[in-house]
Amino acid sequence: MLILKLNSNIMRKSILAVIAIATIQFVTAQTPEERGLQIAKAAEEADLGFKSSSVELKMILKNKNGQTSERTMTTRTLELTEDGDKSLIAFNSPKDVKGTATLTFTHKVGSDDQWLYLPSIKRVKRISSNNKSGPFVGSEFAYEDLSSQEVEKYTYKFLEEKGNLLIVEQDPVDPKSGYTRRVVTYNQDKGYRIEKVEFYDRKNALLKTLTYSDYKLYKDKFWRAGTFNMVNHQSNKETLLKFSDYNFGIDLSDEDFSQVALQRAGN
Amino acid sequence: MNALKKAGNFANKFAKNWAQLVIRFKWPVLVLTLLLAIGLGSQGKMEFDGDYHVFFSETNPELEAFDALQEKYTKDDNIILVLAPSDKNIFTRENLTAIEALTAEAWNTPYSSRVDAVTNFQYTRAVGDDLYVDDLSYQSEDKTDEEIKQIREIALKEPLLVHRIINTEGSVTAINVTVRLPGEDSAAEIPEVTEATRKMVLEFQQQYPQFEVYTTGLVPLNTAFFESAQNDLALIGIMLIIVFIVTFLLTRNIFATIATIFVVLFSIISAVGFVGITGIKLTPPSSVFPTMILTLAVADSIHILITMLQKVRNDGYSKKDALVESMRLNFMPVFITSLTTVIGFLTMNFGDVPPFWHLGNITAFGMTMAFLYSTTTLPALMAIFPIWKSKKVVKKEKIGWYSRMGHFVTRQPARLAIISLAIIAVLTFLATKNVFNDEFVEYFDTSVKFRSDSDFINDNLTGFYNVEFSVGSGESGGINNPEYLRKLNDFENWLDEQPEVVHVNAFSEVARRVNRSMHGDDQSYYKVPANREEAAQYLLLYELSLPFGLDLNNQINVDKSETRVTATLKNISSAEMIAFSERSEQWLKNNTDKPMHALGVSPTMMFSKLGFRQADSMFNGNIIALILISLVLMLALRSLRLGLMSIIPNVTPVLVGFGIWALYKGQINTGMVIVFGMTLGIIVDDTVHFMSKFLRARRELGYDSKQAVIYAFETVGRALVTTTIVLVAGFAVLSTSAFALNSYMARITVIIILSALIIDFILLPSLLILINKKTDEELETNKLKSE
Question: Are B732 and B750 in contact (CB under 8 A)?
């Protein structure tokens, strides 16, 4: 009897242990898809509340044999929560496109809206919304690489965790995207900032790698990279983006992202 | 003279000792040579490289210019898939849907960077005040009849499509797949792309059987090179059978035939080892090396075997004595002919075309080994094999054909010499009328699918050849300068008017169409913008509107200071191509400022100039070969005068060959440039044999020159005819190649070898008699005196 009792005690304990482990497993037993989405949402969350910002941007294009070309522009962004962010990019150089500016309303679902102001003819033109996979002003960045990264634009799959780095695969929802997938490296210790993105083309071959560096923390909360370096592995061309003078105190509103504002933007 | 004679005696003694040594140690010799051949062969590795770049040395200026252009824009090779529906109308719902499906599938081609088709053509139009850039036909299966009619109208009026992607009738269309090969291992990358493309086409045709599909482009060109290298390598099989039969007929002895096959196979296996050790990748020109070695090496064995068998059959020698005697008589001639052949092939290194360096070096190595095996393995094997005396008594050849030939020549040396020289002069004049033509599509004969597909595309849609210009503006962003755009537009128009041109692709067309769309599709604005800011901002808008892979980066450099102009041309000859390019360069010089001046470059241009470049660079090599080979002859014949005279029968066959070629084809290609050095090394054998017998008759037998000529005919006439038959058979096999660099080279070599035999039988003896007239008279008086 005694033996039996003892046995049942052990049994009870082990059953409890099994239940406990199962519960823990159940809590953490996310599918990779859920974990990926969770990370993307965490990243979005971490960047909430910056309201608006402006930054100066220098774009340096390099081809295979080292010839370079530069463009400079000013970017303003307005944070929106119900729908995607609004942004306005105004070109400062080269001279012949000075004053040209694009206005973009990103949407969480469906195609973004985009306009371009051409100072030479003083007109605002709408840009075909379904072509956003092409290169942005001859650079290695596609427009879709630069636009606001809304969570809804991708489906997710968590791949692995390497120390503080979380690696997530993102598949674009838009069938006209130039990519089959992107592999994004988040830094979970640094507000889920993105360290690196690898882009795979339609035949699922590695096309480009974007590396973020010179990160700075603004307002104790928002990580912003000073340098984006995009390398195209297939053409061996490269584009460098250098950001300077981040300004989070600019306090922009909807009126600063209207077509009227677009026409003033370059001045 | 004395020293040379001593050397001659030494050589005789050496050959004799060598033969005895080989016979004594026949088994060890056989095993050692077998091990050597296997040892070398085990290092062998046959890899093929079909990339057309292999034809150009790193310093080739046309290649450098083309590479520079590709680095400025994009480096791209392409595959053109041409679809011809059986109902002869691209513009039906079914056919457009099929084209759209294949276009989507084509994006999956390995290394693809861009796919251009009629369906994904970026149609630019104004809607209200906005610019719309979109696929010409997206989701074609949902289009109404009316929409399809509109698409047809737009497409057939579109200058960027007609003669490039569709024909004027709308019955044939192309899908142009641009691939960016990493170029790390073209021997692997090209087959990878080809395999994927073929699979894609096969699946497409199963699903849509109403389409005929034709394939061309630079990747298929590379594949055709690749496959013709493999096919030409396979010619070795036919040649082995021929060698077996010819050797058997000539020797009438199965063991001799087997021994010969051993020698040639050992030589080829060793050469394969050489290919592996040096890491040479085979290309169509170098892939003929086994057949070349086989053809040239078999002659060595035949000389040794025929003498040996004659000694056994006719002179009653024992097997061993016959072998030693044959070795003694043939060691030096075989050595000399091997040496001259090796020199001839090594001169290919002077050229500018790497595949011919490889051919020259592999064959030279193979021939060196053939000499070694002919003087070791062959006698060892013959010493091991029994000799079956045939029961039939071989009839001793009656005073036959060769003697009569000798008498015929000795009767009228002056007349024959004059007639021959006159014919040679006429043919030499004709030889200068040959023109270079390296149209790479025509390298392949019509049995090759690449050729027939390319011909279809040339006849029905567009051209395969092109010339490209990188036209600069001289300043960053200067391509938006209205002055530049106007001049570029003029150049585009001028090109369009040229009779050779099928299609022109220039940035001015983009500038015109965007300008028109920015003005509500008003046709009167179908001209380049008149204001720089407008041009720059329109371009910015247009570029923002293009989808993935269909951008302008292949046409505009990063700095926006230069644009690429591509003129697609009809099938024209290399000379016309060069003339067209020079005319275009001149137009730019006459009509534009310095920054806009540009050179015409393209793979087409690279091949067009290849023959000239090869001929220029081979010139020195040929002179050196001639000097070296004449020196060898002088030493071998121990006579300066005859050595110099031998230049005539050695050089004239090539002149005659090219003269006859002018009547036959009139066009020569890069492959034929090498034949001078190569055939010189081969045909010199005839001269050596004939002159040495002539000298022997005079020196040892005291004949006058006429008698000596008859003696030479009687002793070597048959041997010369025999080797000529073997050589002609070998090169005739190569001339069946579907690849013109090889087949033309082989054909002219056949003509040259035959000419060489005729010249050695008619002109050479006539000259020998004529230049020895004086010494003959002395001989006569000496004879009289002694009597």
Answer: yes
Give the orientation angle of helix B377-384 with respect to helix B2-24, to 10 degrees.
Answer: 50
Percent of chain B at pLDDT exceeding 90? 48
Q: What is the pLDDT of residues B667-706, one digit of tens each?
A: 998 888 888 888 888 888 888 888 888 988 888 888 888 9
Pairing of strands A222-232, A238-247: antiparallel
pLDDT of residue B777: 67
Tell me if A67 and B559 make a contact (CB, 8 A cut-off): yes
Distance of CA A68 to the CA centre of its chain: 26
Three-state helix/strand/coil letters over A98-154: CCCEEEEECCCCCCCEEEEEECCCCEEEEECCCCCCCECCCCCCEHHHHCCCCHHHE
Min distance B502 CA to chain A CA atoms (Å): 29
B148: contact with A, CB 8 A cutoff: no
- Optimal mutation site among B71, B74, B510, B548, interface A, most CBs of chain A within 10 A: B548
- For β-strands B77-85 and B173-179, DSSP reports them as antiparallel
What are the C-alpha distances in Å from A100 to residues A254, B125, B152, B283, B533?
20, 21, 36, 54, 10
The C-alpha atoms of residue A157 and residue B538 are separated, in whole angstroms, by: 40
Placement of tokens 């005279």 in the chain = B645
Confirm or reject contact between B537 and chain A (CB < 8 A).
yes
For helices B574-591 and B603-637, angle between their N-to-C axes, nearest 10 degrees? 130
Give the domain ranges of chain A: 43-265
For domain A43-265, which architecture applies? Clam (2.50)
Any idea which residue has 């009328």 for tokens? B433
- Taking the Cβ of residue A60 and every Cβ of chain B, the question of whether any pair is shorter than 8 Å is answered with no
Q: How far is C-alpha B31 from the geometric centre of its chain's CA atoms? A: 38
- Note whether A130 contacts B480, CB cutoff 8 Å: no
Cis peptide bond N-terminal to A94, omega within 30: yes
The answer to whether residue B74 neighbours chain A at the CB level (below 8 Å) is yes
Distant-in-sequence, close-in-space partners of A16: CB < 8 Å, separation ≥ 6:
none
Summarised one tens digit per residue, pLDDT across range A129-165 is 566 677 888 888 988 888 777 888 899 999 998 889 9
The answer to whether the CB atoms of A100 and B537 lie below 8 A apart is yes
Residue A14 is predicted with a pLDDT of: 59
Q: Is the backbone of residue B387 left (phi > 0), alpha (psi -120 to 50) or beta? A: beta
CA distance B431 to B208: 53
Reduced to 3 states (helix: H, G, I; strand: E, B; else coil), residue B295 is: helix
Three-state secondary structure string covering chain A = CHHHHHHHHHHHHHHHHHHHHHHHHHHHCCCHHHHHHHHHHHHHHHCCCCCEEEEEEEEEEECCCCCEEEEEEEEEEECCCCCCCEEEEEEEECHHHCCCEEEEECCCCCCCEEEEEECCCCEEEEECCCCCCCECCCCCCEHHHHCCCCHHHEEEEEEEEECCEEEEEEEECCCCCCEEEEEEEEECCCCCEEEEEEEEECCCCEEEEEEEEEEEEECCCEEEEEEEEEEECCCCCEEEEEEEEEECCCCCCHHHHCHHHHHHCCC
In the prediction, which pLDDT does B8 show?
66
HSE at residue A218, side-chain half, CA atoms within 13 A, is: 23
pTM value is: 0.85
H runs (alpha helix) in B347-412: 354-375, 377-384, 401-411
> Any idea what DSSP says for residue B395?
P
Residue of B657, B703, B685 lying closest to B764 (CA atoms): B685
B520 in A contact zone (CB under 8 Å): no
Judged against a pLDDT cut of 90, whether residue B243 lies above it is answered with no
ipTM: 0.82
Task: Sort strands A113-118 and A123-126 into parallel, antiparallel or unpaired.
Answer: antiparallel
What's the gap in Å between the CA of A135 and the closest CA on chain B?
A: 7
C-alpha B550 chain-centroid distance: 37
